[in-house]
Design goal:
Number of strands: 4
Radius of gyration: 13 Å
Strand content: 5-15%
Order of helices and strands: EEHEHHEH
Length: 103
C-alpha cells in the first residue's frame, strides 16, 4: 500500500492508502464489510460520488490510484488486537483480489 499525503501532517486516527495490484477500493470495501470491518473509499469530501475523488486527484493521484484508495478511520477506544485483526483481514482480502482468476 501507498500512504496518501503526508505521514506526519494528518489526523492521528485517519489514514488514506492506495491499494496494490488489482485491489479496487469498492471491491475491498464490500469484502471488508462482510467481515465486519468498515472502511470508506476515496476521500471524505467525495464520499457520495462514484467519480474519482477530486481531492485525491489534486494531491497528484491518477484516476486508477484514486479508485484504488481506501480511507480508514479508527475510533478513539480501539484496542490493539482490533487493529491487528483489521490489518490481517485487509491483507487477506487484497491478496484474494490480486489472485483474481488464479483460483
Amino acid at each position: 500500500c501507498k500512504v496518501n499525503a503526508s505521514i506526519n501532517k494528518r489526523l492521528p486516527n485517519n489514514i488514506s492508502v492506495v491499494l496494490p495490484d488489482d485491489a479496487m477500493g469498492e471491491s475491498i470495501l464490500y469484502m471488508l464489510d462482510m467481515s465486519g470491518i468498515f472502511v470508506s473509499t476515496g476521500s471524505a469530501c467525495n464520499s457520495k460520488s462514484i467519480e474519482p475523488s477530486y481531492v485525491l486527484k489534486a494531491i497528484g493521484l491518477s484516476d486508477e490510484e484514486a479508485n484504488k484508495t481506501i480511507r480508514i478511520t479508527l475510533p478513539r477506544d480501539i484496542e490493539a488486537d482490533e487493529i491487528d485483526k483489521a490489518m490481517c483481514e485487509i491483507k487477506k482480502q487484497v491478496k484474494l483480489l490480486s489472485m483474481g482468476d488464479n483460483f
